[in-house]
Design goal:
Layout lengths: L1 H17 L2 H16 L4 H17 L7 H78 L6 H26 L7 E4 H12 L8 E4 L5 E4 L1 H17 L5 E9 L14 E9 L6 H6 L17 H11 L3 E7 L3 E9 L6
Parallel strand pairs: 2-4
Antiparallel strand pairs: 1-3, 4-5, 5-7, 6-7
Length: about 350
Amino acid sequence: MQGLLERYTAGMASYVATAAEASLLDIEELGRSAITDDVSLDEIAGLHEGAALALSDRGVPINEPEVIRRMSACLSALMVSAAVAYRTKIDLLEQHRQQERDRTERDRQRLETLGQFVGSVAHELNNLLQPVRGMTEIMLADLPKKPPEQADLEVVEACAIQAVGVIQGILGYVRRETIAPQRLAFGTAVATACNFIRPMLREPFETVIRDRDTEVLALQGELTQIVLNLVQNAVQAGARQVRIEVDQIRGGEAGEARAGAGSRRWMRLRVIDDGHGMSAAVAARALDPYFTTKATGQGTGLGLAIVRSIVLGWSGKLRIRSKPGRGTIATLLLPVAAGWS
């Protein structure tokens, strides 16, 4: 404010002495600059009193009619220019807010349309899965004890059940539905997910599970969906090696800064690949809905957004760390379930 006061005092002193229009133009520019710098209109108006006192201290006869008229002209130039700039600023902010509201509404409509489409697709898929599950159950019931075919049929049945869970997870995201999570032994659940997705992928991946028994609150079907999405992303990013790790860490390792957080325990799932990697700008947007770096028709930009939505629903965290040419590490953190020792 001191700098503004000095500039206004100098401009007003010049106009009082010379009545030059250039001095008023300088004052008008000062008013616009003050608004740009987020100075309030009340503070701008207060400059006039300070400038008048400064002129009085210099011996300027501020009570003479002509001096009063010229000082008033300076005040008018300052406040009119500031008021116009303020109105323009408000209009621009409102325009920006309206654009944000329009974008949000477009995203909502896209999600609503997608939800309707996915709902119809899910209905058809469920119809196709019912005979698969039903006939598999009948075949298992009719088989003698422990024939060679039993293990294969059990895999088919498990896959059908998992597929239903994946469909329910997608429907829950697009319809904003919430399914209460259940207590799961996290390491064992990840191993189950890996066994389910392994036949779907052409590229092999390594699994390192250091803690199989510690429980979290999650859903097996949605966890399988998450693992599949993260591994598919790694493969599509040109990875030749993909490793899935599960371990338990403390709050400090999870990046919690609040007091007392260091004793909190988390289960950590990491999907590590040696693919192309991403720049910091791309990685920062990787979790945003509809953001994709794939060619048109090759990706919806919803995969990681759905993953994040699921993880947040479990009170967890999802982080992406990547560098171009150095691969990517996707980290999922879930708090250890209450009461687990």
